[in-house]
Amino acid sequence: MRVLVMNCSPVRNGATAEIVNIVFDCLKVRYDVRRICIDDFDIHFCKGCRTCHNTSKCIQHDDINKIIEQYEWADIIISVSPSYWADIPGQFKVFIDRCTPWCNTHEPHATISSGKKGYSIALRTGPNMKECNRIIESIEHFYGHMEIECCDRLGLCSVEYKEAVEERKNEIIEFCNTI
Asked: Which domain covers residue 157, as residue numbers?
């Protein structure tokens, strides 16, 4: 099995990246694992032209296909997202918007291979799980339109800096053991 762990934060070395590293280390003993960071790719905003609704292709030329290649490679996709104003970071939202050619709400649409499983991990600085659930719902909504089966989720509250991730490491490892 091949696993893609995606850091949905534009910060390559913060708390989200620390969680990605724990997930990577935990799963690499059982699976072929890759990790990517949304900020390593040049993704342009969706222009809203709807050309992809007729052609299944975007008219823009950027790195969106490089990420889709990683999705295609993977059997399991794990999205790890922090909270930015009670939702996913803008960079990740731009990626989701640009996946419209693969979205199952219009025909024709491009597709990635079927049978993929999706997992979500959300983190936030405050103590309220409601915000983590909102982030996870955004990810799972995206998975649904990409026809990625939503399998499990983990919300981590009160995580602001990567040092706070160490206190939650066992919880993250337990989550990984279910994958």
From this structure: 2-176
